[in-house]
Specification:
By secondary structure, the chain is mainly alpha-helical. Helix content is 55%, strand content 2%. The protein contains 7 helices and 2 strands. The protein has helices at residues 8-24, 28-46, 63-82, 87-104, 106-110, 112-126, 137-140; strands spanning 50-51, 54-55. Helix 2 (28-46) packs antiparallel against helix 3 (63-82), helix 2 (28-46) runs parallel beside helix 4 (87-104) and helix 2 (28-46) runs antiparallel to helix 6. The radius of gyration is 28 Å and the shape is flat. It starts with 7 loop residues before the first helix and ends in a 39-residue tail after the last helix. The relative contact order is 0.14.
Length: 179
């Protein structure tokens, strides 16, 4: 191993910083919740759970509807990750699919998929990209995992307002002048 090649620790640190920056620029958690909301909606109608020798089926005649809703939620979650500019459409579509899953897919995957998709869709609609990007430790001179540099305190100026003498009216009723 040469002295110029980065070690595993530097590669992992670089990957984590790159992923953090990528995640910061899109509604990551909204996409993850929407994507995860599709899993129980797909799985529950096709599952064959059993307790000891007692087997019960949750499948309905609309198993294909559950499959379609689950796959669409999965695709909307990926869309939120890779096309963040379409977040409003994807969020509204996820909310509508979650509502439809209540009727079509065994109460929206026994309410688990419904809640995940609803929360993910709401987060997607309300997400706004920050104007400033997160500080890169290389630019600020921070050591990763080290203490944050202290910021200089900012002074806040206060204006002292004194009441105007009685009878000193500048044309506005009850207006006071700043000193």
């Amino acid at each position: 191993m040469s002295a110029e090649s980065p070690g595993a620790r530097e590669r992992i640190s670089h990957w984590r910083q790159s992923f953090r920056l990528w995640r910061w620029q899109r509604p990551f958690w909204a996409g993850l919740l929407t994507l995860l909301g599709g899993v129980p909606i797909i799985w529950i109608p096709y599952a064959d759970p059993s307790l000891s020798q007692l087997s019960f089926r949750l499948a309905t005649t609309t198993g294909s509807g559950s499959l379609i809703i689950g796959v669409l939620l999965f695709v909307l979650g990926l869309t939120l990750w890779f096309q963040p500019h379409s977040r409003v459409f994807s969020g509204v579509a996820a909310i509508l699919l979650a509502l439809v899953s209540l009727v079509v897919s065994n109460l929206g995957g026994l309410f688990v998929g419904f809640l995940l998709a609803m929360i993910g869709g709401a987060m997607a609609v309300s997400w706004v990209q920050s104007k400033e990007r997160p500080a890169d430790p290389a630019e600020t001179g921070e050591v990763p995992g080290g203490p944050a540099p202290e910021e200089a305190p900012q002074e806040v100026g206060l204006a002292i307002v004194e009441p105007a003498p009685a009878g000193a009216d500048d044309g506005q009723n009850g207006a006071h002048r700043d000193a």
